[in-house]
Design goal:
homodimer, alpha/beta, Ribosomal Protein L25, Chain P, Alpha/beta knot, 2 domains, 18% strand, elongated, disordered N terminus, S-adenosyl-L-methionine (chains A, B), Ribosomal RNA small subunit methyltransferase E (chains A, B), RsmE_MTase_dom (chains A, B)
């Protein structure tokens, strides 16, 4: 079973000591945990803005001067879409934090040979980390795929399916499919770290996690608007823990008793997958606005 | 050709006079326009929170005591999902602002007869109105459907497809399909007003609209984070006008010259449909947080 918590690094401008501190991810167990990444000489906050064109490769050269071959869709994108040529500079990433600069050494009909012009770097997760929890096991019509794709694209660090009264199962097949969706999305959006799709958890386990966690946002109707809630709770907000609707009233009460913070998502009735994404988007944009204050 | 602007009502807490004022929608032409809805004795801000269970019906009773029959999926939801019985109180809405309270007069195997217990109301659009513009004519894999469904669900007042250098066409078939998607979503999320899907416009027309509009948010990389931009521009922000990525650099420059405001959407590279929804979600949540200050 994979860890329920990914490494977290808060980037509040008023908490510089936390921003700079470093605690290794394995020193924590569940998602009550907090960890941060070390200072870096790279500006990696904007993981996909500007810079060299970046492509996914499972394998990276182990050191400067090493060569790997890039084929398939990434090759297509390099050669046909961007029309890159021999000696053009590009970056390769492996979705596990590995990143290396280099150039196209040679190009033929089926792929390119990439040569590393520096040693590969291993980048630790940057910025605030969002752990998403949603009961999406029974969503139909590609809605679960969509939820996973968008969580990946928007930078969630993990998604955990919840087994609740209304959504009590998730099939193995579906989990496999969602893994593939997430992987494809991570490649497409050039995430340096793949999103973790956790095994499903039951409601009792969730309550236990909430009670151990610093801040859990529970999306419910008629609650304080999300942005007001996070602005008020900024000092104590170390990590985010999102729990989405489609709960029964009793389940919501139990989550709030366990220490969850109720937040409202505006005037509209949102589907589970929309509410999940609305929460995540807003937190990502809020975090983005905090970092430049 | 449908109007490009839906009625707009800003709900800034610091602009109470605007909130209360009323200008009929037809007094304006393009989406440089602003209009507001009249005061109402109903709390309609939360269009789908609390209150009676609400169901869609094309036809509403014309007055108190009138009866209409509800069948199909709405009947299914009433009778099978919520297990409503004879004499249970419900509301019917028609997606054009019409809303009426009443109860189930009788119920049989194929539908229910609904009897109005009051005269129907016609509700004008509430809250801030968001006009979305995005180049989604060439999106594949259901992404355009998804964009339209989520814009509808999140309360956008209109969506206009843009014809740009990179996305120069949108087929008639696709427009028909998107109309159906929007209609289904409006029913599902119980919007009192259906979203308007405008005819596609070309880039030149867009520039013209931008130059006439009070505030146009243009999503671009490396720009001021969205929430910082809207917090600064709150006083002049009467309506929103969203233009999404997948533009060439030259197109972005032209939009900014025409008066667009560049806004950033965080550190990740987002697909067109994700960027559109990210902008809309954030503005909806921001608006929600302003209304309760």
């Amino acid at each position: 079973m994979r860890a329920l918590a990914a490494a977290s690094r808060p980037l509040f401008s008023d908490l510089p000591s936390l921003v700079r501190s470093w605690l290794p991810p394995h020193s924590f167990k569940t998602f009550a945990s907090v960890s941060s990444s070390p200072p870096s000489d790279l500006d990696l906050r904007n993981q996909s803005r500007g810079g060299l064109p970046r492509f996914f490769s499972d394998d990276l050269p182990s050191r400067k001067g090493g060569v790997v071959r890039v084929q398939g869709s990434e090759f297509w994108h390099m050669a046909k879409v961007l029309r890159l040529k021999q000696e053009d500079r590009v970056e390769l990433f492996n979705g596990k934090g590995g990143l290396v600069e280099g150039c196209i050494q040679s190009i033929d009909k089926t792929g390119v040979d990439f040569i590393a012009q520096e040693d590969p770097k291993v980048i630790l997760p940057q910025g605030m980390q969002w752990q998403m929890f949603a009961a999406f096991g029974t969503l139909k019509g590609g809605r679960a795929d969509w939820l996973i794709e968008k969580c990946t694209e928007l930078g969630a660090s993990s998604v955990t399916p919840l087994l609740t009264e209304r959504s009590s199962i998730i099939s193995e097949n579906r989990v496999d499919r969602l893994e593939r969706v997430s992987f494809a999305a991570a490649k497409q959006c050039q995430r340096l770290h793949q999103m973790v799709l956790n095994p499903p958890i039951k409601f009792d386990t969730l309550l236990d996690h909430i009670s151990k966690s610093k801040l859990c946002l529970v999306a419910t109707a008629e609650a304080t608007p999300l942005l007001n809630a996070v602005n008020v709770r900024i000092e104590s907000m170390i990590k985010s823990f999102n729990i989405i609707c489609d709960f029964t009233k009793k389940e919501v009460e139990m989550m709030l008793e366990a220490g969850g913070t109720a937040v409202g998502l505006g005037p509209h009735r949102l589907r589970v997958e929309t509410a999940t994404i609305a929460l995540l988007v807003t937190l990502v944009m809020w975090s983005d606005s905090q970092e430049t204050v």
